[in-house]
Design goal:
By secondary structure, the protein is mainly α. The protein contains three helices and no strands. The chain has helices at 7-16, 21-29, 35-42.
Length: 54
């Protein structure tokens, strides 16, 4: 399956902790990543650069 153009960006940001759960949900709602990609990314450990925001 092909990944969205923004998949690698959000995957990297999640791993570094520079994107919040709220921002990830926004990325899905505007179509930057799919719900399946969101589920895949957020199943991984999130970095701690900034505090998460639900």
């Amino acid at each position: 399956m092909n990944k969205s153009n923004s998949y690698k960006y959000f995957d990297r940001c999640w791993g570094k902790g520079t994107v919040t759960t709220k921002q990830m949900n926004l990325a899905v709602s505007v179509g930057w990543i799919t719900q399946a990609e969101y589920d895949e990314i957020t199943a991984k450990q999130r970095g701690v650069s900034i505090e998460d925001e639900q």
